[in-house]
């Protein structure tokens, strides 16, 4: 009768041993399961973070990204420019570099000489003395007698200028103008009606000067003057702002403050500034010589004729009375309405105009309605200035690196 009792004891012992052995295993398995679940959850969270990051990248402003690329490109270009300038300085300090600089300077001086020679011949002045010098100049260049050649060309240019000044002094003075030729008009065009400050006078009754505060090319912190100073210093009666330049109140002009890139003939120094820009084909050019004027839709078409004044800028507006400015020629700034400066010629008159609340293209239509046949866009906006008979009728605006002056 005791056998069943023994069997029960063994069964309980077996169960007890089973629980002791397998309970930790079961508990450990449960912990492993929970850990795997937590790890899986963490992986899912990590994936969600990655997705969020990708979405954030995709939603970044394209404008900011483009600006970042533009800044990078600008920095790269500036670095490359610095390297090129360093290498150029090294070349200039070599004998070959010095020779190149001398030859280049002499060719520029010769260009001025050729223009002045042609100017004097047109005025039927004697130029035999200067022509005989030409035969010896080639040998001077071959023998690398740069200083002697430079001295001779300078003397020849000075003689041509002196003879031309004496010729101008013999001409009868123009009849005094009844008025300065200034008016404010509301000009009707097919594009609308535009308020315009206008100086319109016969070219034959005035002498045109293009003047600059600097006598040499300038790249940064360039000198400037008020329009009033330009007019008074040149004994003028009227004047207007000149070509585009980089004003000090623009942050993008850091490193090139008050500089201008376009070719300008300094009438007082009788020389071109930024002469290399005459080869540009997207800029227009207007020149003056005595009582006549010439217009070039492309500055590169200028042949080097002798002149008294000359100014280039962009874009050209009128040629033969037709509007030639196109949308592709303009920047976004030129396509919005603002204050526009223009110089024009037509019907033996010169036009200096400041057009209000107009795009550059609309300013071209205004000039055509006024009677101009040829017109060139100038600076405007905060640089707009017009001075007539001792007072500002527009401006004074910013201090200017260059200007157009009219002299009776």
From TrEMBL:
Which InterPro entries does the UniProt entry name for this protein? NAGPA (IPR018711)
Keywords (A to Z) from UniProt: Membrane, Transmembrane, Transmembrane helix
**Pfam families documented for this protein:** NAGPA (PF09992)
- List all membrane-crossing ranges: 12-33
Can you tell which superkingdom this protein's organism belongs to?
A: Bacteria
Give all residue intervals belonging to the Phosphodiester glycosidase domain: 238-406
Q: Please identify the protein, giving its name as recorded.
A: Phosphodiester glycosidase domain-containing protein
């Amino acid at each position: 009768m005791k056998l069943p009792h023994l069997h029960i004891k063994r069964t309980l012992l077996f169960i007890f041993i089973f629980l002791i052995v397998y309970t930790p295993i079961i508990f450990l398995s449960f912990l492993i399961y929970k850990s795997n679940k937590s790890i899986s959850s963490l992986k899912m969270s990590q994936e969600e973070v990655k997705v969020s990051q990708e979405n954030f990248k995709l939603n970044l402003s394209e404008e900011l990204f483009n600006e970042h690329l533009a800044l990078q490109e600008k920095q790269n270009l500036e670095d490359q420019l610095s390297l090129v300038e360093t290498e150029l300085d090294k070349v200039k300090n070599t004998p070959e570099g010095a020779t190149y600089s001398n030859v280049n300077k002499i060719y520029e001086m010769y260009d001025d000489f050729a223009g002045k020679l042609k100017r004097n011949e047109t005025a039927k002045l004697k130029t035999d003395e200067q022509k005989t010098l030409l035969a010896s100049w080639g040998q001077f260049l071959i023998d690398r007698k740069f200083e002697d050649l430079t001295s001779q060309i300078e003397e020849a240019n000075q003689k041509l200028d002196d003879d031309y000044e004496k010729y101008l002094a013999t001409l009868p003075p123009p009849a005094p103008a009844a008025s300065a030729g200034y008016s404010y008009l509301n000009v009707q065009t097919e594009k609308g009606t535009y308020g315009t400050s206008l100086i319109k006078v016969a070219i034959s009754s005035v002498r045109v000067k293009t003047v600059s505060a600097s006598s040499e090319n300038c790249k940064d912190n360039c000198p400037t003057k008020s329009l009033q100073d330009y007019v008074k210093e040149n004994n003028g009666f009227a004047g207007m702002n000149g070509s585009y330049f980089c004003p000090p109140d623009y942050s993008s002009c850091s490193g090139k403050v008050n500089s201008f890139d376009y070719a300008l003939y300094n009438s007082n120094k009788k020389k071109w500034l930024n002469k290399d820009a005459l080869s540009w084909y997207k800029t227009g050019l207007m020149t003056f010589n005595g009582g006549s004027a010439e217009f070039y839709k492309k500055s590169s078409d200028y042949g080097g004729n002798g002149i008294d004044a000359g100014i280039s800028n962009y874009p050209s507006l009128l040629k033969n009375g037709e509007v030639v400015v196109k949308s592709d020629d303009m920047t976004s700034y030129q396509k919005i309405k603002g204050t526009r400066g223009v110089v024009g010629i037509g019907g033996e008159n010169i036009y200096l105009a400041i057009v209000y609340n107009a795009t550059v293209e609309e300013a071209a239509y205004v000039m055509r309605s006024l009677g101009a046949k040829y017109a060139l866009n100038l600076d405007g906006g905060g640089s707009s200035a017009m001075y007539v008979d001792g007072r500002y009728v527009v401006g004074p605006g910013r201090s200017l690196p260059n200007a157009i002056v009219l002299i009776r």
